[in-house]
Amino acid sequence: MIISSILSTLEYMHSKKISHRDIKPENILYDHFTGSVKIIDFEISKMSKYEHQRLEMWTRTGTLQYKAPEMLEGGYNELVDIWAVGVLVYEMVMGKRPFVSEYNKELTRMILEDEPNYETLYVTQTCIDFIKRLLKKNPEERFSAQEALRTPFILKYSSVSSTSSPYIKQNGSEEDTR
Fold this sequence. Notes:
178 residues; 7 helices
């Protein structure tokens, strides 16, 4: 599963005190022959100089549509990468980003104040719960990459074949039967 590969990469990066700060579709390469996923464009990534100190950042950088709320308000840490993964998963599942506006000021307000719309007939509750934890406005309540990799959603579907989708309800059931 692409998302588990991205999270595994972020888990490693975060363990080395590196934050990408611009996770978005354009910065993810997928090789459909090998199934490998690569994160690219580390131009604005940040690495802590201190091994045992949490990475703290203040620079307003990255792509607005994938920015975590704390990036818009002041200091932040590596969990902004997890928010961006939440936006990616939401976009993959719902077919659009969780916050959409053609005006940056309105988009910023939405990211800071609004909650995504999770109403759909086709997405499993396990998937919705996973996305909700990635898109927690409070970074202290948000999954780390390590925690996200150990969720039922990732554990259940990380070895699912590419011809089936872990996001879509099967046969009208509330949860997948796999």
